[in-house]
Specification:
The longest helix is centred in the N-terminal third of the chain and has 28 residues. Helices cover about 45% and strands about 25% of the residues. It contains 11 helices and 16 strands. The chain has 3 domains: about 80 residues, Arc Repressor Mutant, subunit A, CATH 1.10.10; about 90 residues, D-Maltodextrin-Binding Protein, domain 2; about 140 residues, Periplasmic binding protein-like II (D-Maltodextrin-Binding Protein, domain 2). By secondary structure, the protein is α/β, with parallel strands linked by helices. α2 packs across α3.
């Protein structure tokens, strides 16, 4: 007996409300439906259906078999779909929404993933604020800001450090703050389009220090702020990943080096579905692994930043190495 075919026929009879309807649904002869139901009852040793002229009803045994059989068929269908996804590998387009401050990191991750999965096509878009995935057609979002999309699931990937820094030229002309409160005397280059971004939060062994900053340039483009800092325009607060090369090369120097700023959580946001697509799951796993690897790569940049800071006279504000720029939680 073909158990799967017999179970599919039995479930179809119950779902469709009769033998004839099940036969049409399965594209088989009505006699075959009758034969399979009788064969299943013979195999089990009990009646499954109670039939009258006007009604088809399940017996107690039939009800139990229907419940278990329907779930088994759904599991098989899902397994077939997953196998189909694996057969298709990572083909298709993966649309990802990112925070502007993560654009460089995500660009590097996408390049690395594409080398392993050349059939994947990426559509990478950055927006200052998180947006609803279903409403905008995104498969996935990687954000370092507040996530308010209640229709999606959230997975924290890492916690990133941001660095307060300036060019050696700016420090040479204006000096460097010794305490966070002294930032009010300096031109700060502020990321973000509104006043909610004007607070920079510092920490040391003694506590936590929120500071309101101001300056002549505000932008939601972190690369514009980096460019302004490199042009000696002021003090900037940006993700380590965006300025680590500049710190290592001495184009920027860390200020207020005895303080750290509050780490920012990086979260993956993805649709709330029973079965996440292979492309999304595969890229998420890759991103988490790469962020873990990157967490050990900033010691050299930190040392170079300390030496540059000492060279231009940062008021002796260096007290040891800060935490790595990416710390997986």
């Amino acid at each position: 007996m073909d158990s799967l075919a017999y179970m599919m026929t039995f479930v179809a009879v119950v779902d469709r409300g009769g033998f004839a309807s099940a036969a049409r649904y399965l594209s088989i002869a009505p006699a075959t439906v009758t034969q399979r139901i009788q064969g299943l009852e013979h195999e089990i040793g009990a009646r499954l259906l109670s039939c009258t002229n006007t009604q088809l009803a399940l017996t107690e045994v039939g009800r139990a078999l229907y419940t278990g059989g329907k779930k088994t068929l759904e599991d098989i269908k899902e397994a077939d779909a997953i196998a189909g996804e694996f057969r298709a590998s990572s083909q298709g387009t993966l649309r990802i929404n990112v925070s502007p401050t993560l654009a460089k990191t995500m660009g590097d991750l996408v390049s690395g993933y594409a080398r392993l999965h050349p059939d994947t096509v990426f559509d990478l878009s950055s927006t200052e604020r998180a947006c609803s995935l279903p409403d905008h057609g995104f498969d996935l979002a990687i954000r370092d800001d507040a996530v308010s999309d209640t229709k999606s699931l959230v997975r924290q990937l890492a916690s990133v450090e941001w660095t307060v820094c300036a060019s050696p030229g700016y420090v040479a002309r204006h000096g460097a703050p010794a305490l966070p409160d002294e930032l009010s005397r300096f031109n700060c280059l502020v990321y973000g389009s509104d006043r909610s971004f004007d607070e920079w939060i510092f920490r040391d062994v003694a506590g936590r220090y929120p500071v309101r900053v101001w300056g002549g340039l505000r932008s939601n483009d972190p690369y514009a702020l980096r460019s302004a800092a490199l042009s000696d325009d002021g003090v900037v607060h940006l993700p380590d990943a965006l300025v680590s090369d500049d710190l290592e090369a001495g184009r920027l120097v860390r200020v207020l080096a005895s303080y750290s700023t509050e780490p920012v959580a990086v979260r993956a946001v993805y649709p709330c579905r029973r079965r996440l697509s292979l492309k999304v799951r595969s890229f998420l796993d890759f991103a988490a692994k790469e962020m873990s690897r990157l967490s050990t790569m900033d010691v050299g940049a930190t040392s170079a930043a300390r030496e540059a800071c000492d060279a231009v006279g940062c008021n002796g504000n260096w007290q040891g190495e800060p935490a790595p720029s990416l710390m997986v939680i």
